[in-house]
Amino acid sequence: MKLRHTLALALLTLLLALPAAAQDLWIHVKVHEEGGENTRVTVNLPVSFIEGVLPMLEESGHMEGARIELDDSDISVSDLRRVLESLKGSPDATFAEVETDTETIIFYKQGDYLQVETEESTGGTEVTAHLPIAVLDALLSAPGEQIDLQAGIRALAAHGPGDLVTVRDGETSVRVWIDEYAEAE
Amino acid sequence: MGRLARISIALFLAVTVFFAGTGIALAATVMTSGVVTVRVDQPGPDGVDLYLPVPAVLIDLGLGIAQIAMPAEEIARVRADIAPYQPMLRTLAQELERCPDAVLVDMVSDQESVQVTKKDRTFLVVVDAEDAHVRIAFPDRTVAKVARFLEL
Question: Any idea where the domains of chain A sit in the sequence?
Fold first, then answer.
């Protein structure tokens, strides 16, 4: 009986804490360019701020539909939705490894994340994306060819802290991540 | 003490209390509503050196006067022009007001730096470049007030 009460209390506390935790999260973008003017840019925004401002894009008509363009070929949102559905039910594995003369791209699933790594063979750009599947699911939850950015942000807030994207391109590095701190370390 | 002296002292005290009270009330209003400040400093002989502090309460007053003094058709024209952006402006104003204290944007290069900070319900935008230093501070409620004026 005592255990049941403790569990119920723990569950209640967790449920009550979840929205607060989401509100307190911050998204950070840090860009560092060593060459040229040696520029450092840091942007720190509350996730709740982005969640609040995103409908502005919808109201201004910028978010009616979205297609993702990869080089010369278009991938429709419905194609992405199908890929994601098959990904969700699969065990951890490398799903695609594309090697060309200039770059290598690897897509693999690791736990609740879709990992994407790209590397240019000439020692150029390296991209690592650490994308929670729940967030991708939320992004693709809109009907038709639309991407629901607001649902994506909500899912990101619910998912909690973590690295999202890092990019290294010669003298430039970019990092995008989420945590509970107002200012980037 | 004669009657005239007593009346003079009473009048003096009344006037002092009136002005002191008005001053304190004014200071309290300015303190609670905040101050919008603009500082521009351009080095060089032809450079600009400007410091403009405006109590936010005067902006409220200005918006109130504009509503009365501006011709109705002019207000209608401004509001019609701004109408498509009103929901965006309203949302942005609400979110800026809710945004907690932090350094929101920090850009530093060898040539210039830009910082946008919110502290104690005031936004501070600081731009430092070789040819100009600009510093703008405004209370978070100011944007909401302007947005409300444009909606009325």
Answer: 2-179
A52 secondary structure, DSSP code: H
Q: How many CB atoms lie within 10 A of CB A164?
A: 19
Domain coordinates of chain B in residue numbers? 1-33, 34-151
Concatenated DSSP letters of chain B? --HHHHHHHHHHHHHHHHHHHHHHHHHHHHHHH-EEEEEEE--STT--EEEEEEEHHHHHHHHHHHHHHS-HHHHHHHHHHHGGGHHHHHHHHHHHHHPPSEEEEEEE-SSEEEEEEEETTEEEEEEEESS-EEEEEEEHHHHHHHHHHHH-
Is the CB of residue A173 less than 8 Å away from at least one CB of chain B?
Answer: no
Q: Give me the residues of chain A with pLDDT under 50, please.
A: 1-3, 6-7, 9-22, 65-67, 69-72
Amino acid residing at B13: L
Q: Is the pTM of this model over 0.80?
A: no
The candidate with the shortest Cα–Cα distance to A140, out of A68, A75, A80, is A80
Q: State the count of interchain CB pairs (< 8 A) between A and B.
A: 58
One-letter amino acid of A152? G
Collect all residues of chain A within an 8 Å Cβ-Cβ radius of residue B140: none
| Helix/strand/coil for A17 | helix
**B100 to A182: CB separation less than 8 angstroms, yes or no:** yes
